[in-house]
Amino acid sequence: MLKIKLALISVIMGFFVMTTAFTNANIQDNSQLLDRKTSKLIRAKNDRYFQTSEQPRIVVRTQKGIEHLTPKHLNKSHRTVFIVVGSQKKKRNVQIYSSKDLHSAFSADVRGNILRSQSEKLRSNNQKEFNVGLRFVFKACATTIDQEYQYALDQYDLTNDERAQITHPHRMALPIALALVLVISGLALFLKKHSHVENK
User: Which of 22, 42, 75, 125 counts the highest number of beta carbons within 10 A?
Assistant: First the structure.
């Protein structure tokens, strides 16, 4: 009876160590940039992924230095997305990498649109604002993974309005561009009339 109890305790402890190691491996905050809310989001979503058959992962890593951000084991990884933050003095460089099996879901356009939608916040030296942007990027990656594997979207994914910020990253630039066209057209018309009067 004692042997059975000891064996059971060993199995439970082993399972706890394994799941804890899995969760902690998804956060590597070497530059101490992540706040509690961001860390909680990363753990919670990855814990959900751990319960699926595919077991995808989103690893968030911060490092000192804004170059050489590519993860060392990227080519050997499976069903993994890396969000890597490089920091040097007041400069920040945030990049998204994916394992080969997720390349189609995380094309250069998708990654670029996600990062551009939060570029202002990601460059901010205000830790709170930076973390808001980083959480958005994380949720965007999670939403992309969930759509790829046809998982039900949950509270850790982007809302419809937030998804629109990524699918239409230049939506705010369009009215400005139209206004510019109108101004240039008006100016051209004015100059044309003015030169016509002078020629008379």
Answer: 42
- pLDDT tens digits for the chain (200 residues)? 665 655 556 545 544 444 443 446 899 999 999 999 999 999 999 999 999 999 999 999 999 999 899 999 899 999 999 999 999 988 999 999 999 999 999 999 999 999 999 999 999 999 999 999 999 999 999 999 999 999 999 999 999 999 998 876 544 445 555 656 666 776 777 677 766 556 55
Is 38 within 8 Å of 131 (Cβ atoms)?
yes
CATH topology of domain 27-169: Diaminopimelate Epimerase; Chain A, domain 1 (3.10.310)
Token duo for residue 67: 């170059």
Candidates 102, 94, 87, 146; CA nearest to 118 is 94
